[in-house]
Amino acid sequence: MPSVLIAGATGYLGRFLCAEYHARGYRVTALVRDRRHAKDLVADALIEAQATQPETLTGLLTGIDLVVSALGITRQADGLSYRVVDFGANLNLLREAERAGVGRFAYVHVIRAQAMRHVPLVSAKADFVHALQASGIASTVIAPSGYFSDMGEFFSMARAGRVWLFGSGANRINPIHGADLAAAVADATEAGRGWLDVGGPETFTHTEIARMAFAALDRPPRITRLPDTLRKAALALLPWITPRRINGPAQFFLTAMSLDMVGAPFGTRRLAGYFAALAERPPSSSPALPEGDPT
Fold first, then answer.
1. pLDDT value at position 295?
2. Whether 246 contacts 116, CB under 8 Å
3. Which domain holds residue 86?
4. Do the domain assignments include residue 233?
5. Could you tell me the CA-to-CA distances from 247 to 208, 274, 290, 294 in Å, in that order?
């Protein structure tokens, strides 16, 4: 039975990865920062460790065939930086994988990273990818276009009464559901692929996503398009007027909104169905599960 260690296992994608590899007959070891967050995780074993502290990883990867890391920060709630987690923690895990003789290391990156290299979140991820590809270990990099849960921001605005877009709203994205992305990751690692830009089965403009959100709520669309100069001004001002936990995700979001984020189509789950499920939730509930886990 092949063995896989999933890092960032208690995050949104990590949970799908654990379930997907388990269903494919792997012995799944979940690396978690806190066992209390591992409820209902589909895994054969749990390892509680702080990947930001390399000494806690010593010996933990012995006998592991594959490491899949969805380790990273999207919401800086605990004071850790992207450099410490997205780069440093993953590098600690990679070095331990090298020492343990792990056969392959897979990492969940982000599509269009070169166009966003100046964004701290993306810079940290890209620097780790560089280290991974320079390593002697076989590697797979999966760069998704965006998650369905990211599209929850459109839905939240629609529920509040108006969706605000920058520019024409014509930029395109094919977001992917976490379960479909987990299957794409597993397919890529089993095939020994080096890199995969991937997205969901449908491509939309931002305007089309906004209209879909209103349709799920059975409301007429109210969309306001702001000049792109405002987006650029916000990017310049954010580091000076907002704390890092707000500035970091906002920089990524505002930059990604100016790009086409389209990967190879994969999966079967439809965004309309995701929005329909959100519409059934009470307005006070969270629009989406969090992505990633700074293990």
1. 32
2. no
3. 3-147+177-199
4. no
5. 27, 28, 17, 17
Q: Which helix (H) or strand (E) holds 182?
A: helix 178-191
28-39 tens-digit pLDDT: 999 998 888 888
What pLDDT score was predicted for residue 290? 40
Residue 244 lies in a domain: no
| 105 within some domain | yes
Total domains, the chain: 1
pLDDT of residue 157: 97
Which letter, b or e, does each residue of 19-49 get, where b requires 16 or more Cβ atoms within 10 Å of its Cβ? bbbbeeebbbbbbbbeeeebeebbbeeebeb
The Cα 141–Cα 195 span in angstroms is: 5
Helix (H, G, I), strand (E, B) or coil at 148: helix
Q: Give pLDDT, residue 104.
A: 98
The Cα-based distances of 141 to 7, 132, 280 in angstroms read: 14, 9, 35
12: three-class secondary structure by DSSP: helix
User: 3-class SS at 273?
Assistant: helix
List the chain residues with pLDDT less than 70.
Answer: 74-78, 284-295
CA distance 228 to 233: 9
Whether residue 136 lies inside any domain: the answer is yes
Q: Taking Cα atoms as reference points, which of 28, 53, 60, 55 lies closest to residue 43?
A: 28
Q: What is the CATH number of the domain that holds 31?
A: 3.40.50.720
